[in-house]
Amino acid sequence: MAQLFYDSDADLNLLSGKTIAIIGYGSQGHAHALNLKDSGIDVVVGLYEGSRSASKAIADGLQVLTVAKAAEKADWIMVLLPDEFQKEVYASEIAPNLSPGKVLSFAHGFNIRFGLIQPPEFVDVVMIAPKGPGHTVRWEYQNGQGVPALFAIEQDASGQARALAMSYAKGIGGTRAGILETNFKEETETDLFGEQAVLCGGLSELVKAGFETLVDAGYQPELAYFECLHEVKLIVDLMVKGGLTAMRDSISNTAEYGDYVSGPRLITNETKAEMKKILADIQDGTFAQNFVRECESGKPEMKRIRARDAEHPIEKVGTGLRSMFSWLKTD
Ligand code: NAD
Ligand code: MG
Prior knowledge:
9-stranded mixed sheet
């Protein structure tokens, strides 16, 4: 079993006297900045002029500077911009402000793994990647808990990079839940594969195909919505809590038998062969190259598919139904 590290394994004092620049104040940025600040660490936020996030950060009691000024002032620079903007902002505003002894860090390995950012040898390069959305990272911290995180060391110029990364993970509450060591290659490739094959790509298509099959056969869309989308969360909660066995303990014997005989008819050797190709595209950089090209041309495919799927009947039915669920908080 891989080892998890907790609060007692990490030393927050390694960050005392240091200033941490959080670059970007979105989902992860606001959570890291506020958790570190509440842990007693000096934080500044770096944003581009005119960023809509600036007023939020100021209202949260943080000092906001340009990215270049924040990078210049800080001992530690945490890059929490969308992955597709990191290369350019790094080159123009961060790289010129790096000097020996500074730490450059990320919450996802994409830009380092695919060589889009190539830091100088004299800085530490580390990753602290919470395994949850930023809002959960903030919420759990405020409740005295934390979200588990991965940490990784790409470059150890100071000889202290590992202890420093663990210290940062403690500052954002990660060691309250447990942190696991990885490397940039493993984190990037497994993260991309998980979201493409299972969590986002696989699941969205599975839900849509199930819904379409029922509606095409003449069943009410509202029932199809409940069966193929709404109940996903109920089953996933059981799986997360106790694994497949506990989930199967909770469902009826009828559902369990159906699970065993029908699941393998959908996820076949052909599906697994395709998964391997998806993984190969991630590993050899094909996916990264396609994503970079898509972003450079203004994201035409992403916009087209986003608009198309927003018009899918499951979205229309869902909007209507969710507005009637008094117990579903809409925020
Ligand atoms: P986000 O889109 O929520 O926030 C991005 C922030 O960057 C915003 O404040 C935005 O105003 C700012 N920004 C955008 N372009 C900029 C520019 N050119 N110059 C300066 N600021 C700019 O991003 P996020 O989802 O928090 O992702 C940040 C990083 O964290 C990514 O590397 C991502 O892979 C990683 N990550 C995200 C999550 C998550 O749950 N969202 C989880 C783990 C890791
Ligand atoms: Mg992920």
